[in-house]
């Protein structure tokens, strides 16, 4: 429990990730609570996907502690992973498999019962009934993303990790995804989402962390971040049309140069 009486679903403490000698994630610490949408915001190469990969247990951090639903991922990896659902930045399932086959395959991996009616109702829910006889490779990028999100949630995990889930989605699908995220929040899941979209961060995230060059440089509620940094000369210098937005704070704090 934290000060607000919410359970902590994800705790990341002093995380450090290296690729050989390159220090990609530097002393990153944050927590995600039950019933919270937490946004990780940062430019290309900031270390967002690397942070998620360490939480997922896909890469071994050099140091730091990660607890998912109370389980230390270094000691109780199986339990920790059973408590999280993951939608990767570039999820790709075997393109030749039928969509219902993929859903059933992953349900099997997580020990979730899945008959044809249940598959149909899932596809209906994401408005993809037409995909019931299609191969994954025949779906558009946005449709594939909808399927991969459903699969990430198939075992009703306490923590959901979404790496840029709305990139490439049309406005309708994006709104639908936001609603799904809000729905998960109301059921007390914890959601960690990476994004480049300031609109997304402002619209759906309860709190955000801004990360750059592997380091977290600010964590707060979106509106509080704006209020805290509205007088910062670096922020004012990049503002447009005389009002300070979250994007101005983001660019002001991370700088204007494009990451190589
Ligand atoms: N497998 C790897 N080997 C070596 N360097 C890597 C590897 N994966 C990522 N990096 C480097 O680590 C840094 C962080 O990359 P990461 O993918 O975590 O960034 P990101 O914040 O997710 O960026 P984006 O917004 O572009 O997805 C980058 O400098 C990247 O080049
Ligand atoms: Mg990434």
Provide a descriptive summary of the structure in words.
The protein is of the alpha/beta class and 260 residues long. It has a domain at 90-156. The chain contains ten helices and ten strands. The strands form two sheets. A six-stranded mixed sheet has the order 6-7-8-3-9-10, with helices on both faces. It has a four-stranded antiparallel sheet with strand order 2-1-4-5. The longest helix is centred in the last third of the chain and has 16 residues, at 171-186. The protein is globular and about 60 Å long. The mean pLDDT is 92. It binds adenosine-5'-triphosphate and magnesium ion. Adenosine-5'-triphosphate (ATP) binds at residues 19, 22, 24, 42, 44-50, 89.
Task: Give the arrangement of secondary structure elements.
Layout: E1 8-19, E2 22-33, E3 36-41, H1 48-56, E4 63-68, E5 71-72, H2 77-82, E6 84-87, H3 99-109, H4 116-125, H5 141-152, E7 159-163, H6 171-186, E8 190-195, H7 198-204, E9 207-212, E10 215-220, H8 222-229, H9 233-238, H10 246-254
Bound molecules: adenosine-5'-triphosphate and magnesium ion (MG).
Question: What's this entry about, in short?
Answer:
This protein has 260 residues and is of the alpha/beta class. It contains 10 helices and 10 strands.
């Amino acid at each position: 429990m934290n000060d607000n009486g919410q359970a902590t679903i994800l705790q990341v403490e002093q995380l450090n990730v290296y690729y050989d000698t390159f220090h990609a994630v530097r002393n990153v610490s944050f927590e995600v609570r039950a019933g919270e949408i937490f946004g990780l915001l940062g430019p290309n190469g900031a270390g967002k996907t690397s942070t998620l990969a360490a939480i997922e247990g896909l890469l071994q951090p050099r140091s730091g502690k990660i607890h998912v639903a109370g389980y230390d991922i270094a000691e109780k990896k199986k339990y920790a992973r059973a408590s999280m659902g993951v939608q990767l930045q570039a999820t790709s399932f075997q393109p030749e498999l039928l969509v219902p086959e993929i859903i059933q395959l992953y349900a099997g991996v997580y020990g979730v019962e899945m008959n044809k009616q249940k598959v149909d109702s899932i596809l209906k829910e994401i408005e993809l009934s037409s995909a019931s006889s299609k191969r994954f490779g025949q779906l558009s990028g946005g449709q594939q993303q909808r399927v991969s999100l459903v699969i990430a949630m198939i075992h009703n995990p306490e923590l959901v990790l979404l790496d840029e889930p709305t990139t490439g989605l049309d406005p309708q699908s994006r709104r639908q995804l936001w609603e799904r995220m809000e729905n998960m929040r109301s059921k007390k899941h914890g959601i960690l989402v990476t994004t480049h979209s300031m609109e997304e961060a402002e619209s759906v995230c309860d709190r955000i962390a801004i990360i750059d060059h592997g380091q977290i440089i600010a964590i707060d509620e979106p509106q509080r971040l704006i209020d805290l940094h509205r007088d910062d000369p670096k922020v004012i210098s990049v503002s447009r049309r005389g009002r300070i937005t979250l994007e101005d704070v983001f660019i002001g704090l991370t700088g204007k140069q494009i990451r190589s």
